[in-house]
Amino acid sequence: MRGDILARIIDFLPDATFVIDTAGRVIVWNRAMEELTGVPADDILGKREYEYAIPLYGERRPILIDLALRGPDEETEKRYEYVHRAGECLVAQTRGARPRGENAILWGRARPLYDGEGRLIGATESIRDVTAWRTVEQALEENRRKLAEAMDLAHLAHWELDVARGSFTFNDRFYTLYGTTAEEEGGYEMLAERYFRVFVHPDDRQVITGELEKAVASSDADFVSQLEHRIIRRDGGSQTDRRPNPHPLR
What b/e readout covers 40-50, taking b as 16+ CB neighbours within 10 angstroms? Predict the structure, then answer.
């Protein structure tokens, strides 16, 4: 009775989830798992010999759930980009998956299962298709890389304001403009109060503050203003800084 209730709960979980017993027999295959693989529960329940790996990877072999059930295995772990352990819980990601015959990046979490007396009775694995998310992430990272290269070639300094934290994030070119480095200043992030106090000419601090307040208050995602002010360099010199003042990114 208790097992039936647990199976029903798992069946309605949003993540694709399945359970095997200590013999490697599939005893739960939820609806999300059916959607991910295209394999109905009735066609796989009771199957053994790594049958559950076929709709995910196109072959019969040990996967993450088997690591949770039987312990470390170097050959199985090599098939994943990483396998992280937190106690008995395993988290992994792989690009070698082919659910429904299509290449996919899958993220999985697996752990052993015990009965009320602490005896091992099986293992469970939950899976997410993170292909779309990783594709967007990689595209953003590539755009950041290209932007950084373009700014470096154009000798442009970059800054970003985190309104909630009250801090700026600068790039190496920005620090060069101020006659210093990220290492000397303790990193790329700096509290706004410190930046104004150390690097901005006292007579221009109110001007910068006013422009930033306009940017924060603006509802226009394309808001841009041109700002010119004097800066104080670490070497004691001063010069004029001309920069576009965009709408804060965060």
Answer: ebeebeebeeb
pLDDT digits (tens, 9 = 90+) for 234-243: 877 655 555 5
**Which tens digits make up the pLDDT trace of 37-79?**
999 999 999 999 999 999 999 999 999 999 999 999 999 999 9
Q: What does 75-113 look like in DSSP terms, one character per residue?
A: HHHTTSSEEEEETTEEEEEEEEE-GGGS-EEEEEEEEEE
Nearest to 249 by CA among 129, 158, 173: 158
Kindly tell me the burial class for residue 136, based on how many C-beta atoms sit within 10 Å of its own C-beta (0-12, 13-18, 19 or more): exposed
Q: Which CATH class is domain 2-134?
A: alpha beta
Domain boundaries, the chain: 2-134, 155-246
Q: How confident is the model at residue 246 (pLDDT cuts 50, 70, 90)?
A: very low
In this structure, are strands 224-232 and 238-246 parallel, antiparallel, or unpaired? antiparallel
Is 44 in contact with 54 (CB distance < 8 Å)? no
The two three-digit tokens of residue 67, written as one number: 């690591």
Q: Please name the residue ranges forming H helices in 154-204.
A: 172-177, 182-185, 192-199
* Amino acid occupying residue 127: I
Out of 172-176, 211-215, 237-241, the most confident range is 172-176
Q: What is the CATH number of domain 155-246?
A: 3.30.450.20
